[in-house]
Amino acid sequence: MSIPRIAKLAKVSLGTVDRALHNRGRISEETRNKILRIAEELGYQTNPRARALAIGKRQFRIGICIPREMHQYFDSIHDGIENELKNFSEFRVALVNSSPRQTRDSRYEHVAYLLQQDIQALIVCPGDAQELSELIASAKGAGIPVIFISSDAPASQRTSVVWVDPGLIGRIAGELMARFLGQRGRTAVVTGDLTNLSHRKRAESFARRFKEIANNRQRCEIVEGHDDYEETFEKVSSLLRQQPTLRGIYVATANCIPVCKAIHAQGKANKVHVIATHLFPEMVPYFENQTIWATIYHRPNWLGQYALRLALRSVLEKKPLRSSYLVQPQIILASNMHLVRERAKASRRARFDDTVTALGADPVDEDDVA
Amino acid sequence: MSIPRIAKLAKVSLGTVDRALHNRGRISEETRNKILRIAEELGYQTNPRARALAIGKRQFRIGICIPREMHQYFDSIHDGIENELKNFSEFRVALVNSSPRQTRDSRYEHVAYLLQQDIQALIVCPGDAQELSELIASAKGAGIPVIFISSDAPASQRTSVVWVDPGLIGRIAGELMARFLGQRGRTAVVTGDLTNLSHRKRAESFARRFKEIANNRQRCEIVEGHDDYEETFEKVSSLLRQQPTLRGIYVATANCIPVCKAIHAQGKANKVHVIATHLFPEMVPYFENQTIWATIYHRPNWLGQYALRLALRSVLEKKPLRSSYLVQPQIILASNMHLVRERAKASRRARFDDTVTALGADPVDEDDVA
DNA sequence: TTGTATGCGTTATCAC
DNA sequence: GTGATAACGCATACAA
Predict the structure, then answer these.
(1) Record: contact B331-A330, CB cut-off 8 A
(2) Nucleotide nearest to B15 (CA to C1')
(3) Which chain B residues touch A179 with a CB distance below 8 Å?
(4) Tens digits of per-residue pLDDT, A285-327?
């Protein structure tokens, strides 16, 4: 089941088989079909290691566009990308980085820039669903796979998306909250911005699942904090004053610190509890004093790692990509908190800023295990 | 940083570098040292893909000894092994299987048999800590790596163990139970056999963590079911009669069905809830009727997959193995139950029975993602 | 339109 | 002890 073997069976040369298999033209329909038929029958699969070896000297360039805000989250994605890079140290891969400052800033100019940099694949955390569609269509035309991380824009022509199902996240949080609270007390959601599809989905799924289990007919208040510290603190503080029976808050975004602070400021420290999102060092004290009871960890590190793996597989091994890769979220309690990398690690973002990270260093474990 | 480059720098031939790097003898100390020094300076790492290509025609044989009882659990391990096998389809790997019928049966004769089969690595689910030590020492002497799955025997000379920290499992279950029950009601543990180190560890950790959080001073009853259906059903039934304030049961072994049945038989259906271990089809109804509130999933599939990956890495890439690989358990609720493979899949054990599974079929995604 | 030659980095088999 | 040389499977530049 190798090219030489096919060549022998078809009584042609290696080059001919190669042309048939890879649609390179300069081949007659007849021989092409004969060869393809034989390859089919033999169940030919190209040997990725041999291919890797053969094309190993080329430079590959991968474009990266991931906003810089919310360090705890996006830095993890970047770390994941770097991690995976080490698994490809035999190749000459360069990451070309161009990222907007704020989460809500336009990615247009950045992606446009990246597409001019002779990249072979593009990894983006998209913001607005619409703005990139034109650029992505042109990338597709140029044969450049575009991989979305963390959120999707279904209308776009992106090749693949690597993310966590937001409905699933909401349902898990809702079920957990219902079990934690039993029948007593009501709950609320703090989210970023309901115009964001993922945020809305999480909030809705949470509320639905909570009511389903807790048999609770009360309205579940939804607070938009816009990932702003002050705004969130104020809104949650007033919510706590208005709703004395509030017992649980699901913070569907990374911005849970002002929520915890508000709870303590209102003297509700052991009365109101939080289910949060992600995990980073500032949260640890609130885990320890039992303000946070659980957090839903989206594994940003793994999102990044997998996105780069897909990009490089597509480029190096010509592997066709599926349109969607769903990553499983993890439920984190105080007992397994120590297993999350972001709990302790300092930000390394500096290394990434607007640089071309050339590579080729020490190979490393992929360490899903830990 | 390749062998030819080192050869040029050292002004020797490829063969000489090879002999220096791999301690093949037939080389003078002097040139050996010179070459090793240069390789060190250049940070030489052998290119695994090239190596793979070069040794691709050899046969490799991996011995497997995993008991057949408890299909839901051990079959998953086997499935994981087969999964990983597909990622190495370019090689000629054969799995040599010899497994005891019962979990508690001796593995001695099986392992002894496997060691005579010209295997290059051995994967075992050990039972008794002692019985294999002599065989394992001799395997070590013969340069055959021995990888334990799922439980450890610290005194033995095994190369590596791939497992889930039993203390961690117990603490997670304990914390979850404490959160679920709040301050009300007491709890109990159903386990297999307290002479088994992992089982004891899980039970103890559970009890300690539960008390810590729930501020509960009551004794936490521990029931040994010996993974026997009848015995477990009887013991749990009588426990439920004796302890009317019992609210939660942690089943630390896969044997949770008789526990659920006993709860229903005693008319405690919505009063007593279960945190279980693993997930398989028979459990689904009890998840749906809210008898089971959560389960701790040890990811047996991944245990198997990773064990084979380590074995093949050790053999094919000469990669040194760490002594312990800790896999993270997952907390499963009704909301994310559908993500667990074992929930639905039928047993495929037949394929494995006492056969030499020769291979080389279709390569496949590794799909941690799903 | 087809065939041949060369190289990727490693291992293995010779001959010297 | 050491150095050529071929082979693994694939890609590619060049020759026919």
Answers:
(1) yes
(2) D3
(3) 179-180, 293-294, 333
(4) 999 999 999 999 999 999 999 999 999 988 877 778 889 999 9
CA-based nearest distance A205→chain B, Å: 11
Does residue A201 approach strand C to less than 7 Å at its CB?
Answer: no
CA–C1' gap, B44 and C10, in angstroms: 13
pTM: 0.88
DSSP per-residue codes, A183-208? TSSEEEEEES-TTSHHHHHHHHHHHH
Of B172, B179, B370, the CB nearest to A180: B179
- At A59-98, the pLDDT tens digits run 899 999 999 877 778 888 998 999 888 888 778 899 999 9
**A18, HSE (Cβ side, Cα atoms, 13 Å):** 5
A329, closest residue in chain B (CA to CA): B336
What backbone phi and psi angles, to 5 degrees, belong to A328?
-80, 130
Neighbours of B261 (CB within 10 A): 17
Measured CA to C1', the nucleotide nearest A51 is D10
Backbone angles phi, psi at B46, to 5 degrees: -65, 140
Domains annotated for chain A, with CATH where assigned, are 1-45 (1.10.260.40), 56-164+299-328 (3.40.50.2300), 166-297 (3.40.50.2300)
Nearest-angstrom CA–CA distance, A220 and A237: 16
